[in-house]
Write a structure and sequence with these properties.
By secondary structure, the chain is mostly helical. Helix content is 77%, strand content 6%. The longest helix is centred in the last third of the chain and has 26 residues, at 87-112.
């Protein structure tokens, strides 16, 4: 067994099977917290949104990412399949994060025009991906 396989094998199942989801959730928490603490700023959000909406965006980011982590960490292997027991937390997270990402991407475009498309691309794609994921999770639950 290689060193890489041993290192990855020591990670929790929810990280090994969903590393990109874990990365998104872990990226969003410090961003939201530093915005709420006044240590980070977004020129796009500050230009387009009133102050209260900036804070609301930060709260959505923190709550959404925290709920996403709660849902992801409930993943356990059963009969060789990853089973997530806190689907409601994931659905809630995706309901909050999708519009938050959309708002951020659109504010970048409003402030920067088409010159900001590259910067807006990531949050816009994240908004679409989280929306698709939520719809699929809800369909699987029905």
């Amino acid at each position: 067994m290689s060193l890489q396989q041993r290192l990855v094998g020591r990670l929790p199942a929810w990280v090994r099977t969903q590393p990109i989801d874990a990365m998104f959730a872990l990226f969003g928490l410090p961003s939201g917290l530093t915005l709420l603490a006044g240590q980070a700023r977004s020129r796009a959000l500050e230009t387009v949104l009133p102050l209260w909406a900036n804070y609301l965006w930060g709260v959505c980011l923190v709550l959404g990412c925290a709920a996403y982590l709660i849902g992801l960490t409930s993943g356990r292997f059963r009969d060789g399949r990853l089973v997530i027991t806190r689907i409601a937390a994931l659905v809630f997270a995706l309901q909050v994060l999708s519009p938050a990402a959309l708002v951020y991407g659109l504010t970048i475009l409003l402030v920067s025009g088409w010159g900001g498309l590259l910067a807006a691309w990531f949050p816009l794609v994240a908004a679409a991906a989280t929306w698709i994921r939520r719809v699929e999770l809800q369909r699987e639950q029905a």
